[in-house]
Design a protein that fits this description.
This protein has helices at 47-58, 87-94, 104-117, 137-140, 147-152, 161-175, 227-237, 241-250, 253-258, 263-271, 275-298, 309-314, 316-323, 363-376; strands spanning 7-13, 18-24, 29-36, 67-72, 83-84, 123-127, 184-189, 193-199, 202-206, 304-308, 345-346, 356-358. By secondary structure, the protein is of the alpha/beta class. The chain is globular and about 55 Å long. The structure holds adenosine-5'-diphosphate.
């Protein structure tokens, strides 16, 4: 018989930081959390050294870890679900580094470090892309020569899958519908943002693409843009691909429009009459409403529209701007309910045709739950 898994360590290993949380899965509660920063640049020399620090921070708790779940950016088409990090799977994962040259080495470094330090404790890789692997080709393919898909795997993959999956399950429970019968538009809106179209509990489209750059107007990413505009800028400014990548991923979006990537600052500026801040919020709301309308169509009518992430859970101002654009779907804002933050709340009026519901996400708990599920198989 398999050993019951009680205590799960969740690792989110980035290039220069490592975030962790520990869950008691019997109670479904978080029992520890922390962050190790400046890995390889002033702090611990590598991920193994960073994990040594985690073990020291956890003290006695470190000895009781039954399983470890790792956030992994990209599973491409190889991994359609979370998997145990066996030697064979690690070999396959090494081949996917090209899909996330910044994140994947750190993600895999976290797994390897855990194998060394937590000897005999199973590791599970949980992918940001996996939930979106059910997308049909008509949503996933780009209208370019198919040889780029065949040779290089260029297609839409989508990200934030762990969050979209978590709120899909939470929404189905809230609506008292079986998960395989629930139709949703899920909106994960934080620093990075993406929407997903969920039909019968499965993803059929999402706004991010080959990389997390596509789709929504984000904190520092431009989201959807005419590819020719990028080529023009590269030519005019003589940018290398790496420089263009930095421009579009780190220096665009709300930051470029307003000077701040934080929605709270931008709402504050707009309230004081700043025109750029006002425009940025309207661009954000417009694009969100545009996708909600499109996704409502492709899923054949939503049972609910779900909002989550830092903005979706908390920003009454942004939610109001989005919901005010959904009148054509028979949706009206419940102004009083919209003042509530950080909790499950129906944001639309009772007579709205489709409810809009804020549901807090919990990606770390979702990773811990998936870790337990995969190890029970
Ligand atoms: P990440 O994608 O980095 O996990 P979050 O999900 O934490 O980001 O979201 C960050 C965004 O959420 C920021 O734009 C921030 O302004 C917004 N946000 C967080 N808390 C609040 C709040 N109480 N009111 C309004 N906006 C908020």
């Amino acid at each position: 018989m398999k050993k019951a898994i009680k205590t799960v360590l969740v690792i989110n290993s980035g290039s220069s930081s490592l975030k962790y949380q520990v869950f008691d899965m019997v109670k479904g509660e978080r029992i520890a959390k922390g962050l190790v920063e400046r890995i390889g640049c002033g702090g611990p020399k590598d991920h193994t050294a960073a994990l040594d620090q985690v073990v020291a921070d956890l003290g006695e708790l470190a000895k009781g870890i039954d399983a470890i779940g790792h956030r992994v950016l990209h599973g491409a088409e190889v991994f359609k679900d979370s998997v145990k990090a066996t030697a064979a799977n690690m070999k396959k994962l090494e081949k996917l580094v090209k899909f996330g040259p910044l994140h994947m080495p750190a993600n895999l470094g976290g797994i390897k470090a855990c194998e060394k330090i937590f000897k005999g404790v199973p590791n599970v890789a949980v992918f940001d892309t996996a939930f979106h692997q059910t997308m049909p080709d008509c949503a996933a393919m780009y209208a370019i020569d198919p040889k780029y898909y065949k040779k290089m795997g260029i297609r839409k993959y989508g990200f934030h899958g762990t969050s979209h999956k978590f709120i899909t399950a939470a929404a189905a429970a809230f609506l008292k519908k079986p998960i395989d019968k629930v139709n949703l538009v899920t909106c994960h809106m934080g620093n990075g943002s993406s929407l997903a179209a969920v039909k019968n509990g499965q993803c059929v489209d999402t706004t991010m693409g080959l990389t997390p750059l596509a789709g929504m107007v984000m904190g520092t990413r431009c989201g959807d843009i005419d590819a020719a505009a990028v080529l023009s800028i590269m030519e005019a400014e003589k940018l290398t691909p790496a420089e263009a990548d930095t421009l579009l991923n780190k220096k665009s979006g709300l930051l470029a429009l307003t000077g701040s990537s934080d929605c709270r600052d931008i709402v504050g500026k707009a309230e004081k009459g700043n025109k750029q801040a006002e425009l940025a919020l309207e661009m954000l709301a417009y694009r969100t409403a545009l996708y909600i309308g499109g996704y409502n169509t492709v899923i054949g009518g939503a049972d609910a529209i779900i909002m989550t992430g830092g903005i979706g859970e908390n920003s009454s101002e942004v939610r109001e701007r989005i919901i005010n654009r959904l009148g054509a779907l028979g949706i009206k804002l419940d102004k009083k309910a919209n003042q509530k933050r950080g909790q499950v709340v129906v944001l639309s009026t009772k007579d709205s045709k489709i409810p809009v519901i804020a549901i807090p996400t919990n990606e770390e708990l979702a990773i811990a739950q998936d870790t337990v599920r995969v190890l029970a198989q």
